[in-house]
Amino acid sequence: MGDGDRRLTVNGSLRSVPANPPRSLLDVLRYDLGLTGTKYGCGEGRCGACTVLLDGVPVNACQIPVDEVGDRSITTVEGLASRGELNAVQQAFAELGAFQCGFCTPGMIVRATALLRDDPSPSETEIRAALNGNLCRCCGYPRIVRAVERASEIGRSGGGRP
Ligand code: FES
Ligand code: FES
Q1: What is each CA distance from 123 to 50, 88, 127, 152, in whole angstroms?
Q2: 65 φ, ψ (degrees, to nearest 5)
Q3: Is 100 in contact with 14 (CB distance < 8 Å)?
Q4: What is the pTM of this model?
Q5: How far is CA 149 from CA 63, 87, 115, 125, 160, in A?
Q6: What confidence tier does 78 reach under pLDDT thresholds 50, 70, 90?
Q7: By the 8 A CB rule, do 36 and 76 touch?
Q8: Which fold has domain 88-156?
Q9: What angle do CA 119, 149, 86 make, to 5 degrees?
Q10: Which of 51, 65, 88, 138 is the most exposed place for a label (fewest CB within 10 A)?
Q11: How far is the CA of 19 from the centre of ligand 2 (A)?
């Protein structure tokens, strides 16, 4: 690590990235660290395609200057699986085929993972409210909501990690 680098904790690992120029967390994840599961949709905080967890809280990475991350822990969609085992939300999306083009899917999965950690048994209304900031251009919402309900079932049956 050189003097001009900054440290970030990403998916449990300490990573070193250039401190300059000032950029969004999304750019650093995608272009410095190759974590391209986090998508660039609007770049304006309106689509949720870039959702990651900062200390477990879902945020739009396109709206977070990397300077402001500090020592908070960053989790991207790549960090949700553990030892090759998908988490319950990933399992449910795959099981139900809850995607068409898949562009919105990582953001949906990250945000739904945070929801189920806070509330393992959300109602459909609560799921729709939690995903309100995540847009699907393919309009696959019914199946996405069903997948989150299925992930809740998997989690409650002990069949997967949240
Ligand atoms: S790319 Fe970040 S909210 Fe759309
Ligand atoms: S599956 Fe295409 S944007 Fe959601």
Answers
A1: 25, 17, 6, 10
A2: -65, 135
A3: no
A4: 0.95
A5: 29, 14, 11, 11, 13
A6: very high
A7: no
A8: DNA polymerase; domain 1 (1.10.150)
A9: 85
A10: 65
A11: 33
Say which CATH class 5-79 falls into.
Answer: alpha beta
Within 8 A by CB and 6+ apart from 9, the residues are 15, 71, 72, 73, 74
Average pLDDT over residues 55-78: 97
Ligand 1 pocket check for 133: Cβ under 6 Å = no
Beta strands in 11-90, from DSSP E residues, in sequence order? 13-18, 51-54, 57-60, 73-75
Residue 160: its pLDDT value, please?
Answer: 67
Spatial separation of the C-alpha atoms in residues 129 and 152, rounded to whole Å: 16
Q: b/e map of 32-62 (b: 16 or more CB within 10 Å)?
A: ebebebbbbbeeeeebbbbbbbbeeebbbbb
Residue 52 β-bridge partners: 59
* Domain residue extents for the chain: 5-79, 88-156
Q: Once rounded to an integer, what is the mean pLDDT over residues 76-95?
A: 95
- pLDDT range class, residue 1, cuts 50, 70, 90: low
Predicted local confidence at residue 2, as pLDDT? 57
Whose tokens are 């970030």? That residue is: 8
| Token duo for residue 16 | 């070193």
Q: How far is the CA of 105 from the centre of ligand 2 (A)?
A: 7
